[in-house]
DNA sequence: GGATTGTTATAATATTTCTATAACATGATG
DNA sequence: CATCATGTTATAGAAATATTATAACAATCC
């Protein structure tokens, strides 16, 4: 389990955890059906509280990235048919691209970034 | 001043404020040299505390979007030569694109979003 | 001089985040 | 059946962050 937590970051631990796992799914380090470590196990590995991990898993469940069943724990299960995905993505892009645009980041530079990032996502999409 | 604050959002008020202003700059509703409302004025308009607005302005100053001088208040002044802009942008893109990628958003769909967004940014970049 | 500006200080409250224990029902394992 | 590990839930507290409330200050504009 390669999960990096930055205790000096201003980002909440449970969000860092969530993000790492989503990144892990996108980069195929986690695949549909894979089981995540138990909340207690992962908490111990990282050195944080069980509930913090649980919160991350709960968010991932609500966002449709994992299914959690008794005994098996959290299992990667991606809900690929989300209605608001595109609109949500656009909303998030709008603000972070605004920052770039103010600093003269061109559309082509953004394209290049997208390409680099999607390469890590392996697929040919 | 067209600033929309969502009091039901889970996003901090001062961050919503910051984002709206950055968006305003990107979409040319605010231009280099324009003055922002005084902290007291804007606070009253929105119905929040002066310090919350002040915090937003302080963040904008630190991020290089405004200059603040005595008496004039906050003035749009964009530092376009930021070293870490691209790397920072990539880091932010990585996670939100991961979310999209997991839900089968193709690179072409992302391109299309970028195009739509950059159109609002007016320029030909 | 008076009004308005950002700035600073101090404090109180509310919310969020993280931790700490503990108990529970469930299901796998032996 | 007994044991053990699982997520879940409850409760509580600590710590950090966000928001509000007053108040005062120096600078600057009119």
Question: What this model shows, in words?
Answer:
Two copies of one chain form a homodimer. With 125 residues, chain A is mainly alpha-helical. Chain A has two domains: 13-76, Winged helix-like DNA-binding domain superfamily/Winged helix DNA-binding domain (Arc Repressor Mutant, subunit A, Orthogonal Bundle), CATH 1.10.10; 82-120. Helix content of chain A is 54%, strand content 6%. In chain A, strands 1-2 form a two-stranded antiparallel sheet. At the A-B interface, helix 1, helix 4 and helix 5 of A face helix 1, helix 4 and helix 5 of B. Chain A binds a DNA duplex (30 and 30 nucleotides) through helix 2 and helix 3.
Structure described in brief:
By secondary structure, chain A is mostly helical. In chain A, 54% of the residues lie in helices and 6% in strands. Chain A has two domains: 13-76, Arc Repressor Mutant, subunit A, CATH 1.10.10; 82-120.
List keywords for this structure.
2 domains, 6% strand, 125 residues, 5 helices, Arc Repressor Mutant, subunit A, DNA-binding, mainly alpha, homodimer
Order of strands, main sheet of chain A, comes to 1-2
Number of domains of chain A: 2
The Cα radius of gyration of chain A reads 16 Å
Distance between the termini of chain A: 26 Å
Q: Report the mean per-residue pLDDT of chain A as an integer.
A: 92
Number of helices of chain A: 5
> What structural category arises from helix and sheet content of chain A?
mainly alpha
What would you give as the CATH superfamily of the largest domain in chain A? Winged helix-like DNA-binding domain superfamily/Winged helix DNA-binding domain
CATH class of the largest domain in chain A: Mainly Alpha
CATH architecture of the largest domain in chain A: Orthogonal Bundle
């Amino acid at each position: 389990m390669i999960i990096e937590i930055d205790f000096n970051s201003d980002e909440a631990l449970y969000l860092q955890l969530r993000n790492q796992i989503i990144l892990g799914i996108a980069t195929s380090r986690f695949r549909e059906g894979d089981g995540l470590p138990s909340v207690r196990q992962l908490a111990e590995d990282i050195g944080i509280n069980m509930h913090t991990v649980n919160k991350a898993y709960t968010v991932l469940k609500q966002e449709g990235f994992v299914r959690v069943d008794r005994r098996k724990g959290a299992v990667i299960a991606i809900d690929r048919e989300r209605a608001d995905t595109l609109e949500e993505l656009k909303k998030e892009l709008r603000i972070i691209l605004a920052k770039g645009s103010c600093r003269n980041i061109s559309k082509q530079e953004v394209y290049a970034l997208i390409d680099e990032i999607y390469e890590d996502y392996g697929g040919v999409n």
